[in-house]
Amino acid sequence: MHLTVRNRELRTVDEASEPDALDLQLIRLLQEDGRRPTAAIARDVGLPEATVRRRIDRLIREKTIRIVAVADDEKLGLALHVLIGVQTDLQDVETIGSALCALQEVRWVGMTTGPYDYVIEAFFHSTRHFHHFLTTVMAHIPGVKRTESLTVLSLLKDIYRWDLLMQAGKDRNGGETTGETEHLSRGGGLNARV
Question: Which domains does the chain have, with CATH numbers?
Answer without folding.
Answer: 2-61 (1.10.10), 80-151 (3.30.70.920)
